[in-house]
Amino acid sequence: MFLICPLIRTRRAFRQFRPTFEFEGVSGSRREFIAWLLKVCAQDGVKPADLMDADAIDLLAERLRTALQIEMHMTLAFEHAFRLGESRVSAEVVEQVLSRAIDELEPTLTRNGYDAPTLTALLNAKPAEVRDFLAGTLPGDRTREFTEQLRIAGVPV
Description:
Blueprint: H1 5-8, H2 10-17, H3 30-41, H4 48-51, H5 54-63, H6 67-84, H7 91-97, H8 105-111, H9 116-123, H10 127-135, H11 140-152
Helix pairs in contact: 2-3, 3-5, 5-7, 6-7, 9-10
């Protein structure tokens, strides 16, 4: 790999990148953020295309939402590619390290600040009901009721 301590330099470099984004973070510029991150972390003379396939970048940009998720999964992808003896990160390697549950209900609500105790208070429900709701095992009528309450409250469901 041609990275300088895989993605360790990002904190220092991230400060330089931050002013170019709106308050919403990297949500509208994920591909550009990944390209920038690769460029900043690569050794001099190494191109981002030498480190990661375009398909892998597209997959990361499509499936991940936040800068923290992108940085974490890029690090995991580089580590996994290294263990496999690969010189570049491919889409297959990225697919292997991506969390399958990243777009499920609980991670989505948690990313938006709604953990189980918050949902318990918001829905005026028992903690066990909220756990079942997040796990997808709550009966259908109660699930619809919770979903409707969350939509009315403006929670992204």
